[in-house]
Design brief:
The chain has 250 residues and is an alpha+beta fold. The protein has helices spanning 2-23, 95-119, 123-130, 136-139, 147-162, 165-177, 181-208, 223-240; strands at 36-40, 43-50, 53-61, 71-76, 82-88.
Length: 250
C-alpha cells in the first residue's frame, strides 16, 4: 500500500517541482519546500522534501474526516507541529490546481515566520483559542449581509479599480466606522493572511498565463471577499513600495 501510494504520486511531485522551479523567482518563499499531505482512503499520506524530491515519510489516520477537494495548510502534531499542506489527489490534475499548492505554501511560510507572533496582538484570536474555538477564522459571524457593509464594500472595490488613493482611503475609513473593533480585526486579519496568499497565487498565475482568481469580488460578499480585497490592497502597496513584498509581517 505504501509503495503504491508513493509510486502513484511520484511523477506528480516531479511535475510540481518543475513548475515550482519555473516560478520561484516571484518570491523567496517559493524556493521553500513544505510537507504535503495527500488525503486518501481515510489516511494522510505525508510527503516530505529531501535531496531534491518529495518522498513518502508518514501515513497517519484521518481523524478529522477531511473532505475531497480540501486545500488547506495547518500544523500537524505528528509532524512536530510543522505547518503542512493538506490536499486531495486531484489537485495535481491541472497546472491551475497545482498553483493552489503554492497558495498553501504561503500559509506555511506565514505560520513559520510571523503568524503566531501577530496572533498575540489580536484579542479575537487569543479568546478563540482560550475557548477552544480553533475554527474562528472560518466561522466568525461577520455581518456580510448588512446593507451598509455591502454598499461601502462595493464602493471600495470601485475605488480600487479607479486607483484613486484619496477615495480608497476615505471609503476604507467609512468601512471601518460601520464595524465593531472586533469585526475590523477579523477583516484585517483575513486581508493579511488570505490576501497575501491570493496575491502570490495570482502572481504565479499571471506569470504562467492562467486565469487569475478573483473569487469573492462579486456579491453576495463572503469570507473570500477579504481574500480579494486584501490581494488588491497588497498589489497597490507593492506597486508603491516593491520592497514591502518581502516584509510580510507588515
Amino acid at each position: 500500500m505504501e509503495r503504491d501510494i508513493a509510486l502513484k504520486y511520484s511523477n506528480k511531485f516531479k511535475a510540481l517541482l518543475t513548475l515550482q522551479d519555473e516560478v520561484k523567482s516571484i518570491h523567496p518563499l517559493l524556493s521553500e519546500h513544505f510537507p504535503i499531505a495527500i488525503v486518501e482512503d481515510k489516511q494522510l499520506h505525508i510527503f516530505e522534501y529531501k535531496k531534491g524530491s518529495y518522498s513518502l515519510s508518514h501515513i497517519e489516520p484521518d481523524t478529522m474526516d477531511i473532505p475531497v477537494g480540501v486545500r488547506a495548510a495547518f500544523p500537524l502534531e505528528c509532524m512536530q507541529n510543522q505547518a503542512v499542506v493538506v490536499v486531495t489527489g486531484e489537485v495535481f490534475n491541472t497546472v491551475s490546481e497545482q498553483v493552489i499548492i503554492f497558495h498553501e505554501f504561503v500559509h506555511c511560510y506565514q505560520y513559520h515566520t510571523c503568524e503566531m507572533q501577530l496572533r498575540e496582538h489580536i484579542d479575537l484570536a487569543k479568546r478563540s483559542v482560550n475557548t477552544g474555538n480553533y475554527s474562528w477564522e472560518l466561522n466568525y459571524p461577520f455581518p456580510y449581509s448588512d446593507n451598509q457593509y455591502i454598499e461601502i464594500t462595493r464602493s471600495l472595490f470601485e475605488s480600487l479599480d479607479k486607483k484613486d488613493d484619496k477615495l480608497i482611503g476615505s471609503t476604507r475609513r467609512k468601512l471601518k466606522e460601520c464595524l465593531t473593533t472586533e469585526q475590523v480585526d477579523y477583516m484585517v486579519w483575513q486581508e493579511w493572511k488570505e490576501g497575501f496568499a491570493r496575491y502570490i497565487e495570482n502572481q504565479v498565475k499571471f506569470f504562467l498565463g492562467i486565469n487569475l482568481n478573483h473569487g469573492g469580488r462579486d456579491e453576495p460578499y463572503r469570507r473570500t471577499t477579504f481574500y480579494e480585497m486584501g490581494s488588491q490592497f497588497i498589489k497597490l502597496i507593492v506597486q508603491a513600495s516593491p520592497g514591502s513584498l518581502y516584509r510580510i509581517e507588515h
